[in-house]
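To: structure subgroup
Subject: Chain for Friday's discussion

All,

I'm putting the inputs and outputs inline so they're searchable in the archive.
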Amino acid sequence: MEFLAEYGAFLLKVLTIVVAILLVVAGIAAAGSKGKGGPDGKIVVNKLNDDLDEFKETLEESLLSKDELKRQHKQKEKQEKAKAKEEKKKAKADTEETRQKRVFVLDFDGDIKASATDHMREEITAVLTMAEAQDEVVVRLESGGGMVHSYGLASSQLQRIRDKGIPLTVCIDKVAASGGYMMACLADKVVAAPFAIVGSIGVVAQLPNFNRLLKKHDVDFELFTAGEYKRTVTMFGHNSTKAKEKFQDDLEDTHELFKKHVTQFRPDIDIESVATGDIWYGQEALQYKLIDEVGTSDDYLVSACADAEVFEISYEFKKSLQEKLGFAAQAGVEKAVTRFLTIVNQQAHSKG
């Protein structure tokens, strides 16, 4: 018994020390975050042309003989000299007409809350400081949709590019449905892979109702509102026919706004035939004029590298000290729930 008592006392001491250390670290982290100003992240730029050159060189070194490599190196040296001369001429001219076209590539991987908008708005702001009318912005977009207001904001970010008169292309490799297509239809050109899922121009809302379960266990649920339509349907109270009808009317109004949005940017679409909530694969989507070309983002960007400088642009938020030390458990749980709901939402957009 004496041993157990001593062991228990030892554990309490260790636990006290650990808790004290955690409190001190948390205090330092909070103090550090309060005193820091400045930007929350940074822009990262990667030139795709250089990546392609590296891929090619790696394969050449593995596949070609020594004699073939020598010939390749000599030919490359000639090309580089000729390119250098051409660049000098362009530098002397120094006019917009002679500058090589630039393609800025952004990625949007949308969850149900369109959380990627936080990154994209910073990326677009950065791109708009440099991009001109002769350039192009390409967005590789993947999303099964989600909250209307969240995807409305994401669409508004893409609208900023169009408002500046810069050509906008959206590439869809897997899915751009519902809110994802709300974004995609803004583009001057939409390119989708042969089996990419496109469409779902509709609105859906679903929620459980526990009113009968509460009544069964003699639990009352009271809801107080000011304003006839402050709350229509609820999860715990009784939903009247009038409340359900109002909720349905709101969905219909949102659907009409969605249809007007698509028609504004793709006027050649027969909106009534595609705004049924149905989805189409790439080739079918082309027939319905939901997209302009069938192809992958890889093909599109490799082709762009032939006559333009192609840059991948990404924004990376700086992690706080709390996050680095593992004090972001709540954020982690929230992300996990969002991810789960996003997967469920994406599975709904499938014909298989």
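Points worth raising on Friday:
Residues 43 and 126 are 8 Å apart (CA to CA).
The chain is about 55% helix and 15% strand.

D.
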